[in-house]
Amino acid sequence: MNEKIKKQLTAFFNKYKLIKYKKGQILFKPGERINGILFDKSGYVRVYTISKEGKEITLPMLKPLFFCSLVDALLGKENKYYIEAISPVELWLAPENEFMDFIKQDPDLYDKMTKSMLNDFMDLTNNVQQLIFGDAYTKIASLIYSMSEKFGEMKGKETVIGFNTPHRMLASMTGLTRETVTLQILKLQKEGFLYNKGRRIVIKDMEKLKEIAQV
User: Fold this and answer.
1) b/e string for 34-49 if b means 16 or more Cβ within 10 A?
2) Per-residue pLDDT averaged across 56-61, rounded?
């Protein structure tokens, strides 16, 4: 979503109450209706499900609140996932009918927002394809590249992912074991593509990581 659309949506949502969640807090559980349109001011969440075998499977998306709540409203379906804050989160919740009236009054915004969401969906599809067909090394490189491209902060020539990325979470996003994730990250570190600063991943060269990720 580009900055112009974000500013327009922020101006609309800013009149509603700001809801705050702590890191680790569950925002929604399967079967719960969101009952409105969510728009995040700050923070990151993860969306995951639990298989019949009890294994967590995390979707490769970390800013899904607006998208998920809009789909929930349009289709009238219950949420099927756990949505958990992986950092402190601030978000607005607007009544569905008021948001729909707002975007209907601005066809240009509606058109741009729809195209932006379709682009995000295509990016998600490409990410899933890499996570399914790539080897372990490529899967981790692809996931880290995608996260840093969307949520990274430029610090000089380096890119810092703006939240903690525990190996357990990366494992549930790729279908790999935690041990395999650790080995692949150590390999990427040894080859000089990234390093850890505190609990955050720092990418030294985005172009080289992109080549490895094959995106």
Assistant:
1) bebbbbbeebbbbbbe
2) 73
